[in-house]
Design a protein that fits this description.
Elements (H helix, E strand, L loop, with lengths): L2 H7 L2 E3 L18 H12 L14 E3 L4 H4 L12 E2 L14 E2 L24 E6 L5 H10 L6 E4 L8 H6 L1 E7 L8 H7 L3 E5 L18 E3 L7 H6 L3 H13 L1
Parallel strand pairs: 1-2, 3-4, 5-6, 5-7, 7-8, 8-9
Length: 250
C-alpha cells in the first residue's frame, strides 16, 4: 500500500478498557512527549485516522505507554511496537515494528521555533552541543570537542549562545547516538533546515518505508567519526543544496 493510499484508508480503534496509570496515560511533553500526543489524538477522536467503531478499523491500538511494558520481554513477540529507541540489536524488527522520531516538546508547545537561515548564510560546516553520554559521543568528543573551527563540537554552550540559532546557521548538524540509538537532534536539525549527519550503529530510522533518508541526510557508523570533516568536505555544493532543500520539504 502506498503512503497516499494509507492516508485514505487507515482507521485506528483505541481500546477503551483499562485504567490509569497503566492505560490511557503517557507523557505529552519533553523528549518522550510524542507518545502522549499520539495517544491524545487517537483517543480524543481529533485524528482523521481514529475509527468511530471497531468494525471500521484496520489497526487496533492499546493505549499503553511503552514505559509500562518495556521490561516485559514476553510481550515483544505479541506487540507491534512503536519505539523511539529503534535499536536492531535489541530485538527491534523493522519489518514488523515502527520507529518514531524523538522530539523535545516543551510545555504548551509542539516544536522548536523556526530560526533557520538560507544556505548562503550557513558558513560553518557542522555543529553539535550536548552531554557526554554513550560510546558514540565519547568517540566524537575525543576527536572533535573544541578542536576545529569548521566542526564545532561542544559539551556545554556559554549561557549567552542560542542553541537553536546555532543549528540554524550551520550547513550540517551532527546527530550522535547517546545511551540510546535515537536522539532528538535529528528532528531539531530538520526543524532548523540543517542537514543531519546521523552517527550511530543499529538505528532503524523513523518512517524509512516512506522517507529515503539518503536524500536529505548523511548516515555514518561510529567508526567513521575521525573522518567527519573529510566526508563533509567532498560533498559538492550542488549536492548540498539539493539535500538542504529536501530537508526543508521534510
Amino acid at each position: 500500500m502506498s503512503h497516499i493510499e494509507m492516508e485514505k484508508r487507515l482507521k485506528i480503534w483505541a481500546y477503551r478498557e483499562g485504567e490509569q496509570p497503566l492505560m490511557h496515560d503517557a507523557p505529552t511533553n519533553n523528549i518522550y512527549g510524542i507518545e502522549g500526543q499520539f495517544m491524545d489524538e487517537v483517543e480524543s477522536g481529533k485524528s482523521q485516522f481514529a475509527a468511530g467503531h471497531p468494525e471500521e478499523a484496520n489497526a487496533f491500538y492499546i493505549p499503553m505507554s511503552t514505559r509500562c511494558f518495556i521490561s516485559k520481554a514476553y510481550l515483544y513477540k505479541h506487540f507491534i511496537r512503536a519505539l523511539f529507541n529503534a535499536n536492531t540489536s535489541e530485538r527491534f524488527q523493522p519489518i514488523r515494528d515502527s520507529s518514531i522520531p524523538e522530539i523535545n516538546i516543551p510545555p504548551s508547545k509542539l516544536g522548536p521555533p523556526h530560526l533557520d537561515q538560507p544556505p548562503n548564510k550557513r558558513p560553518i560546516l557542522s555543529f553539535f552541543a550536548g552531554s557526554a553520554h554513550g560510546y558514540v559521543r565519547s568517540v566524537l568528543f575525543y576527536y572533535w570537542k573544541e578542536k576545529d573551527a569548521e566542526i564545532q563540537v561542544f559539551e556545554r554552550l556559554p549561557r549567552n549562545r542560542n542553541y537553536t540559532k546555532l543549528m540554524g546557521n550551520k550547513k550540517s548538524c551532527l546527530c550522535p547516538s547517546g545511551y540510546e540509538v535515537a536522539n532528538l537532534r535529528i528532528v531539531e536539525a530538520i526543524a532548523t533546515g540543517c542537514v543531519p549527519m546521523i552517527i550511530g550503529d543499529h538505528y532503524s530510522l523513523p518512517f524509512s518505508n516512506v522517507l529515503d533518508w539518503s536524500k536529505f541526510s548523511l548516515i555514518i557508523t561510529s567508526d567513521k567519526i575521525p573522518k567527519i570533516k573529510k566526508i563533509l568536505k567532498v560533498i559538492l555544493t550542488e549536492t548540498y543544496l539539493r539535500m538542504q532543500k529536501r530537508v526543508k520539504q521534510v
